[in-house]
Design brief:
It contains ten helices and 20 strands. It is of the alpha+beta class.
Length: 463
């Protein structure tokens, strides 16, 4: 996975400054409600305007007063028409990148944990596995500093923290930036069909000359050749792995990535800029060598329970880890290679793309859906072809809102794990939709979500 590109991404709506309207029934008439600045009616609904950053606080207050939230809508105005409150809805979704529509595989720079530059010319010795040796200190492509928010540590690609030592046996940093593995490109195939937007490639690398092992949900680093603008060797970029631990050929000798060429307008000059590493990879010739580090990451790992229920929400090349999960769950060769893991649960993928030709791995996904209709559900959000209920573009957040009650019912089940991968901006829209569903039962979503994270059932990798 990688980040968004182009100008449209700069227009992403900041939900924190937006207003939502709660439709509430059953509020008690008492001294506290009498002090409010909105009309309290003796029957019917109450419409309360709430800033996004006070949504959870207001939900708790309404619950204390005996009220029940029946709907939540983003608004630009609340106007009385014929004596009834009418909501003028706005497009509440985070717009996607102009190049890929929804996302692109993250070209995230990361400094070497050892502080050394990544300038090794040959395969380094495999570093002993250390459960605490995660790569830290992600950096951004230059122009994105003005296009995207940072998290509180300045990271570009963020991962919610997994429970400490929950996966102590998972391989990490077998190869480090100062001694990378030199792999060879086996294949580089286009994923965007004719008429689609941007360039997205499925790349497979030969690992047979080394000891690089990984599992589904992890990432590897790629170090592009050449020097950066400061004359130093290029730093690695992290990419989510799109194959199972056995590789696409099921021989334990390959790893695959899903990579979009990053393309955006320079915020000052307006010049089109292309990502260094993503461009290098998208045009890599079979047989070419590439420096690989890792693997890293423990947050996006699948549960070992074959009866687990798995909700997947992905945009663009955020599909990479989801493809690995689905192959492990449903592919015949994978099921034969994993006799101790025969998936019998239910999985649901909600996949956001800009156009139909941009549905990555479409044939694979629809083949699984056809073969396992009771175990796999596939839902598309095609932003430039489908309309949301307000008449705007259909983004993944709209699909989540459409199915919010179903998703909420699934999420409450103890065996359910939820995975989100793609643009960071989509998280807030997803939270808003699930907040409304949870509020119908008097539950505060943000508190419930914290419990899910503590239980290791809510997995996020966004950028």
């Amino acid at each position: 996975m990688y980040n968004q590109g182009a100008v449209e991404g700069a227009a992403n709506i900041e939900l924190g400054s937006r207003i939502f309207v709660y439709e509430v029934v059953g509020l008690r008439q008492n001294g506290e409600t009498d002090k409010t600045n909105y009309p309290i009616r003796k029957s019917g609904s109450v419409f309360i305007r709430v800033p996004y950053n006070r949504m959870n606080q207001e939900m708790r207050r309404i619950t204390r007063l005996g009220g029940k939230i029946v709907s939540i809508h983003p608004v630009t105005a609340l106007q009385p028409v014929n004596g009834k409150a009418v909501l003028e809805t706005a497009n509440s979704e985070v717009s996607s990148s102009a190049t890929s529509g929804e996302t692109a595989n993250s070209e995230v720079s990361s400094s070497a944990t050892s502080g050394k530059t990544a300038n090794s010319e040959g395969n380094g010795k495999a570093t002993p596995v250390n459960a605490k040796s995660e790569v830290k200190g992600f950096a951004k492509p230059p122009a994105e500093e003005q296009l995207k928010k940072k998290d509180n540590k300045g990271n570009t690609m963020t991962q919610a923290k997994a429970k400490k030592d929950a996966h102590a046996d998972v391989p990490v940093n077998i190869y480090r930036p100062n001694a990378p593995f030199i792999g060879k490109c086996i294949s580089n195939e286009p994923l965007v069909q004719e008429g689609g937007i941007g360039i997205v490639q499925h790349l497979t690398f030969d690992l047979s000359a080394g000891n690089l092992k990984y599992i589904e949900g992890q990432s590897i680093g790629i170090i592009p050749p050449g020097l950066d603008k400061n004359g130093k060797p290029e730093k690695l970029r992290l990419y989510s792995i799109a194959s199972t631990r056995h590789g696409d050929s099921l021989d334990d000798k390959t790893v695959s990535l899903c990579v979009r060429q990053l393309e955006y307008k320079h915020p000052e000059t307006g010049e089109t800029v292309y990502g260094v590493c993503s461009t290098h990879l998208c045009f890599l010739e079979p047989g070419a060598e590439v420096k690989i580090t890792g693997p890293v990451g423990k947050e996006m790992l699948l549960p070992s329970d074959p009866d687990a229920k798995v909700i997947m929400m992905a945009t663009g090349t955020g599909i990479a880890p989801m493809r690995a999960y689905l192959w492990r769950m449903f592919k015949d060769g994978e099921r034969a290679a994993n006799p101790d893991y025969q998936y019998n649960g239910f999985s649901w993928l909600i996949f956001g793309v800009p156009t139909s030709p941009n549905i990555l791995y479409k044939e694979e996904l629809e083949e699984i859906q056809q073969k396992y209709p009771e175990n796999f559900r596939l839902t598309y959000a095609i932003s430039r072809e489908q309309k949301n209920p307000q008449g705007g573009r259909m983004y993944i957040q709209d699909r989540v809102a459409e199915h919010a009650d179903e998703l909420w019912k699934l999420i409450k089940e103890e065996k359910t794990h939820t995975y989100i991968c793609g643009l960071r901006g989509m998280e807030e829209g997803i939270d808003a939709a699930l907040s409304a569903a949870a509020a119908k039962e008097g539950i505060t979503w943000s508190d419930y979500q914290k419990d899910l994270k503590k239980a290791g059932r809510w997995h996020v990798e966004t950028y």
